[in-house]
Input
Amino acid sequence: MKTIRLVYIVLYILSGALTGLFYATDESYLPLTALLIAAIAFVLQAYADYAPQPAGIVHHGVFFKSISNRGILGWLLGALLTGIYVALYWFPEVLGKSIDGAPNKGFIHFFDSISTALNGHAASEWFAYGTLYTYLIGLFGIRFMWKYRAHPYHLRRTQVILASQFVLAYFIPEILESFSQGQAYFDKDLKNVWPLNYDFFYSWHLDNMQTSSMGMFFFVFGLAMFLIVTPILTYKWGKRWYCSWVCGCGGLAETTGDNFRQNGPKGLVAWKIERWSIHIVLVLVSIMTAATLYGYFTGTDQLFGLSIYSHFQKPYGFVIGALFSGIAGVGFYPLLGTRIWCRFGCPMAAYMGIIQRFKSRFRITTNGGQCISCGNCTTYCEMGIDVRAYAQKQQNIVRASCVGCGVCASVCPRGVLKLENGPLEQRINEPQSLVDYIKTKG
Ligand code: SF4
Ligand code: SF4
Output
């Protein structure tokens, strides 16, 4: 193992040197080469970290403890991520974005050659971000599979996460974009569904989709995903089919965020806030979209004397789209866990959560007689669910917020928890209100 550790350290240094060489020479093959060498180093490191560990049940081996457990490095990382998001949204020139037609510089310039190869033009700040996002999901996804290699559920779903991100969210949109040069832009990520994709019904987006047959396909597909596919799949498997298998936000949380899953707020107060906030966001996106469609079909830009852009779309995009989902959603990973956005803000999760709670075959069954109260399940539930309380009551978990990640079942040393799909009858077994139970137990 010592040799492998030496090899990956050398590869990291080589990757750093190639990055430096790129900025000195501007050779276009160097960025991709540096990224590939760093990826090989990362995979070797994952192997060296986890291969000697038993392929068991413990959530072992977090990256530096001070980062993972809200230590000083965790706070610094949170501040750095938050700063990067602020720059991305409002000050992209800090990251090197071209101004007045000048070439990109700095961080964004690093991605120019990859962007040109994929879609035919220099990188935008969002291309650089999307490439890094996909790269991290790929690397940490492989690491995650090493860590949970004893669990076929995690292997399968991580493979689907990687395929969804690389194929549906990255390569297909970029390649389609290269075939659509000069044509009106519309979102080509097939898994980006309204209400998560809140600008789907914006006038410019509806108009642009109508300019080509490919656009019409994306329009019909988008509607079908929201109205037909999502309810059916959520009925069959719960919201996990999307939140833990397909969604990009969930994909990043499950892979790159795995070291922070224990940091999510827990307890009844957090549960109460979460139920209010996520449903408020669902109401807000519905109101904003209704106003948008009203404006589109009537040809007006006002509703009840309010500007549809300034009073509906702009505040939603700023507060929910940028501040909440981007800056807090990822920037606060080290401090508030990886599912802050999914738990407290995502309107897609709220929509599926309602179906999951009242009309879904999904449940986590508990064999509480075996429970030894170790609390692993509650500790590592990224959605802050007190899984142990359910286990001890032998009550099925049918919570709207559960994303079906399955980590509670994997870290349970007694095999108490099982993710299942079954008939609706007897899905909910509530011998005593869980809230009362938690209160009596303190
Ligand atoms: S209850 Fe289990 S499956 Fe559901 S979100 Fe928590 S850890 Fe994941
Ligand atoms: S259900 Fe399993 S992980 Fe949770 S407290 Fe009981 S024994 Fe521990």
The mean pLDDT is 92. The radius of gyration is 23 Å. The first strand starts at residue 302 and ends at 303.
